[in-house]
């Protein structure tokens, strides 16, 4: 694999970028938000199925193959454990259609993972599909071994508020990486979504209380946040259709109607927007960092959702607004000491137009780095330029990998380090920053900044 | 003319780009969407009027001169055939005001055309205006000779559903280029626009049926699509104020009211959105590729529209939304085998935020390349980066020139090939693609991909 | 300070850029819009307080420090003249936190100012804060001396319509720079904002008339515009929540209700949108260039506004629309001879999607250059590419510094000249422009174009 990949093409700039990158390439990985399954880490079974490792659970990969005409059924999505035959067939489809990934970061990450973890440097193809399959399967890599090898200091998972977090507790002494849960209450804040009563029951059971009214509901949420904090959580993560936060006059009335199922879509939305203010208040009080990433049209293709479930590649971004939406929340908590609000978006224009100016004034607001559809080199460069030049480096969250693919974590962080090195090298070469400052900034972005923002 | 124009400035990247470009520069031109007049090709009269060739019909040129203070009347817009005196005067205005075109692709295309077709390498000016005029007029270029010389394999025109397509039939054996009509039914789908009854009459006459109700209307549209397909059409093209596709409960009721002229603006819009679903259904059934490019505020300046008509340079983009708008259409037809939906926009942010993610999941959806206001090198590079890195190269339509200026076709395709070569060279130089893959990708973009997407 | 700062990294392109930049670096400065206090120029007291010179009045600087956790009180915002102790403390905070400015244009401007005006080349830090303080204070620079030294030919201030403009009159013969007022009537066009009756009284007093009705109100505005023109004004500047211009049927009814305070928010907005048409009419008649920059959510943080007032760093951009909004205004005045409408935005996507196409057709419309949150190198490059390639260079306003920090004027113009030189050099290196054209274009952007657009 080429040493200089992703570094700027201009030789003078590349030389600076290379020096900067070398200085941080081996620093530990801080991963404050992602979707690795803690049960998998607890079980620590060896990976013997390349398809289960690289394809089936990763909608980054499956959506590109699906767009290329390969049905999700042929990739084993939603099928549970695959037979070796089915797994080999799916793997062969990836290798045969390798060209579908050209130009995407998915290709880049996979290539990095193949080489770094499995020593594979050949380009996948129909011809070598089975050989590569065997190479990966025979390696029998184990999750915890990879965690250690990747140098991951901190790894956050994403968890249901009613989760007992037993895997986290069990892992606490067992691995050197700190594995922290993340409080993700979306479903518990949207009362018009089907199944509300059941969710409230589960929440009550987990909190060990009754939830008879709005007050009891708030208390249960606060209780679960304390449980998460006791298990090492540092943040609460929120993703709704929009970013609005607005009080309602009588939340208890809406709460009661929700319990009986007699609540309209609009009322449910009003309640959820009200709860965003409450979530900010709780974060301000208990210290959990609040992360926000609205503006996704989820499960765009109903037939795929019905057959294969959520997170199968058809969550599609749309426009989203932050400036007006967050005004009430920031009026209340924008300068609260210790309150941290990290804003993400998949509408790239919002980063420069709204998030950077907000982060460039409010001490509580940090610009979350580009992720999901924006985690490619071009989108990252656009982010670097448009956010940094408005808000400075100190207002960034540091890199977030947001991945459910364990093996892709170091590849993603490495991409980020290379691109940050390249961007900073450009500032040095145009005399906007001295090289010692660039090095200091890069080191901060990789370790100090995420530690500060996520209070590690 | 300089060999390396538009190629990346960095010498290492430029060397790769040059190799890539050389390999595709002479490949045939596939032009699946444009506005060349088929009657002109049939008639094949020599071009003796440089103004009629380069200025009057081309709103790309006239709008820039108009913005510079030159009234459209002085350019002969809307005047019919010009006297030589008027033509020379208009031509002189272009040459004298050549600096107004600096930095625009219009200047680049004209420069390329002047040199490649007419051997002109001097910069136009007041001093040489008449000499250049004579050079071009004396060349007496004929449309079909240019078609052949340009190496155009496939050329689509844009046509009214009631058109008999006689020129296409007559040209079928006469030229080596395949000249195909395109079904463009916009006016036949918007019942609140003046003249609806007359249009429906013309449609009925063309289809040889009566249109008494909604059912008859659908049948007539289907009939005309078959007529177009019989004359070689491969696509149906749609441009409305928005991209929304939504069913109405009783389309026949709206259709009846439209026939009597008793339909509101809002009802007309509802009917049109309903018809987008029908158009998708028809495309899914008869195989015509569906192309969509909404979001233009047409005829922005009423006084100019009244005096000079449509397409005179004041169609102005505005915001447009695809994700929510197309959800019902893609729920129905998004995975239909053989259904192709090519999405264009002049709101550049939509390409990365919405179109690329849609094309990166739905096998039917292709990202149409940037055109119109986005057909300049910077917008094209932005598109390359932001769309490719999300959806990969295989989800692109290939280049679309969308021009009514015959002579600009090779210049536009050449610009595209150079920019694609440059972008791919950048991927090679940052080790994201091997050079053999880049070459394969470039060749696909130029010929294989448009052939596949437009089913040639 | 490095000679080549901000010039392109590619050596070949940089060489061209350097030649272009050298040719314009010492041309006079034209500043057609800004916020320098004319009273300060009249008084011409020496600057003995570095904090008052560089920090307190400049929300560019204070917002970045505030985001970094430094309260505005510690920076002396809203405190009036500071004691030397307080001033030194605030200055020290800037120097200690110098790293907060990395990557921002604020850092670049300050660095330029420190070296060019005060000979300071050291990087500010806790260690040298007091030495730098003394260096700046001891220089005892005077405003008029700086004006002359900076080579400012034309400087526009921003003024209240009721202002007598006495400082401008007094300065007329006293300095070589032409100091022109700018008519800024925002508050006089928004009748639902508190204090309307008082404002109308002040307007009447200034105009020397009674304002009993809408007609009298229009006459008073016209009168004040004449007063401004008599004092050298060349433009009227407008910034409202949106860009809409729409007639109301009975403006006098709304005006009467406003006088009694009995007007709703919505009616106030309707009246303001109506008045935008009137403002365009007046500009068309009296020749004042109309500048427009809507789309800011002002005073986002109420607590900060209440304690420190407006312009304290929390005006946050949001989305804005021009195409539909301005259609009625441009239908009436878009081709009026002598009418100039300069459009600015802080929603960068609007420049390419809407403003450039409008400026590329209407002879009255000019694309104002990027400012405020868009005045950084990356945003400026994005603007250059996306606007120029649609509308050409001749549709640009030339650089606007929009600053209230006198010392930053030459630094900002220098940044612009460097970036324009770099962009043009790129066009030369990719063979899109000859070098003589690039030089001619750059000179025009620096002097001829602003002189033409602002009728100097």
TrEMBL record, chains A, B, C:
<dbReference type="Pfam" id="PF02614">
    <property type="entry name" value="UxaC"/>
</dbReference>
<dbReference type="GO" id="GO:0016853">
    <property type="term" value="F:isomerase activity"/>
</dbReference>
<keyword id="KW-0413">Isomerase</keyword>
<dbReference type="InterPro" id="IPR003766">
    <property type="entry name" value="Uronate_isomerase"/>
</dbReference>
<comment type="similarity">
    <text>Belongs to the metallo-dependent hydrolases superfamily. Uronate isomerase family.</text>
</comment>
<protein>
    <recommendedName>
        <fullName>Uronate isomerase</fullName>
        <ecNumber>5.3.1.12</ecNumber>
    </recommendedName>
</protein>
<dbReference type="InterPro" id="IPR032466">
    <property type="entry name" value="Metal_Hydrolase"/>
</dbReference>
<comment type="pathway">
    <text>Carbohydrate metabolism; pentose and glucuronate interconversion.</text>
</comment>
């Amino acid at each position: 694999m080429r040493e200089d990949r992703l570094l700027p093409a201009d030789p003078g700039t590349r030389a600076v970028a290379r020096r900067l990158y070398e200085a941080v390439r081996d620093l530990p990985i801080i991963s404050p938000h992602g979707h690795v399954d803690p049960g998998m880490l607890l079980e620590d079974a060896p990976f013997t199925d390349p398809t289960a490792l690289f394809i089936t659970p990763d909608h980054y990969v499956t959506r590109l193959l699906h767009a290329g005409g390969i049905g999700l059924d042929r990739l084993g999505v939603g099928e549970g454990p695959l037979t070796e035959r089915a797994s080999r067939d799916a793997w062969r489809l990836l290798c045969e259609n390798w060209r579908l990934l050209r130009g995407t970061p998915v290709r880049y990450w996979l290539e990095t993972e193949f080489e770094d973890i499995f020593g594979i440097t050949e380009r996948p193809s129909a011809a070598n599909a089975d050989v590569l399959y065997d190479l990966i399967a025979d390696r029998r890599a184990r999750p915890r071994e990879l965690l250690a090898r990747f140098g991951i200091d901190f790894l956050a998972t994403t968890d249901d508020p009613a989760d007992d977090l037993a895997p986290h507790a069990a892992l606490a002494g067992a691995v050197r990486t700190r594995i922290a849960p993340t409080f993700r209450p979306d479903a518990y804040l949207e009362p018009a979504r089907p199944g509300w009563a059941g969710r409230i029951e589960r929440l009550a059971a987990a909190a060990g209380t009754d939830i008879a009214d709005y007050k009891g509901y708030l208390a249960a949420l606060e209780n679960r946040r304390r449980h998460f904090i006791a298990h090492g959580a540092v943040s609460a993560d929120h993703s709704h259709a929009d970013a609005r936060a607005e009080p309602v006059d009588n939340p208890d009335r809406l709460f009661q109607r929700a319990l009986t199922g007699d609540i309209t879509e609009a009322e449910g939305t009003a309640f959820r927007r009200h709860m965003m203010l409450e979530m900010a208040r709780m974060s301000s009080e208990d210290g959990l960092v609040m992360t926000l990433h609205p503006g996704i049209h989820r499960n765009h293709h109903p037939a795929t959702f019905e057959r294969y479930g959520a997170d199968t590649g058809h969550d599609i971004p749309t426009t989203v607004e932050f400036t007006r939406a967050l005004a009430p929340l920031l009026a209340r908590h924008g300068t609260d000491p210790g309150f941290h609000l990290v804003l993400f978006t998949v509408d790239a224009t919002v980063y420069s137009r709204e998030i950077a100016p907000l982060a460039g004034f409010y001490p509580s607001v940090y610009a979350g780095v580009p992720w999901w559809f924006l985690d490619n080199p071009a989108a990252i460069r656009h982010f670097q330029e448009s956010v940094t030049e408005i808000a400075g480096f100190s207002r960034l969250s540091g890199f977030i990998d947001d991945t459910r693919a364990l093996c892709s974590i170091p590849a993603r962080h490495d991409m980020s380090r290379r691109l940050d090195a390249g961007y900073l090298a450009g500032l040095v070469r145009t005399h906007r920053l001295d090289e010692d400052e660039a090095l200091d900034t890069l080191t901060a972005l990789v370790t100090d900044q995420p530690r500060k923002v996520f209070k590690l």
